[in-house]
């Protein structure tokens, strides 16, 4: 098993063990979770694995941390979408590939909408921080003005950030993609995306 697969295995197992503690103790919204140190001792795993699992749960809206008080269960029913996605990801083997494919669909849909809406992006004003893959597509999806797509993308992006290592992308490819969008050239934009931005392809 490679390093990436091993880290993912430990992380997912830790997440599932914490879920089991919640179920076995019948913890309800408003109830306090054991502390990070207590969970480390209970689960016999490294503190970093516990920290990452708790971070993922918080990002999913399943728990919340209150400064000086601890970590508490929140009402899952308020987060049906994230609960559905989290259940899928953490119960299905190799779900990260499925998530990457859905993320690809959302990102290419965002590009498609900008192309066919004739959205013009002033590349000269494009902030340097957006020449980072996730910040780049966050900006692209914000420009589509589709809040549902953006919300789902945020959730998937956080999963992949925790589970996936990515190769850096040269700035020139961001420029090429933005230029294709401004030119209204969907075929070219899709081709550039698939060549340089597609995370569902095996990492070389």
From TrEMBL:
Q: What's the short name of a Pfam family annotated to this entry?
A: GntR
Q: Which domain of life is it from?
A: Bacteria
Concerning Gene3D superfamilies, the annotation shows:
Winged helix-like DNA-binding domain superfamily/Winged helix DNA-binding domain
User: What is the protein named?
Assistant: HTH gntR-type domain-containing protein
Q: Which residue numbers delimit the HTH gntR-type domain?
A: 8-76
| Keywords, alphabetical | DNA-binding, Transcription, Transcription regulation
Q: Which organism is it from?
A: Caldibacillus thermoamylovorans
The GO molecular function terms of this record are: DNA binding; DNA-binding transcription factor activity
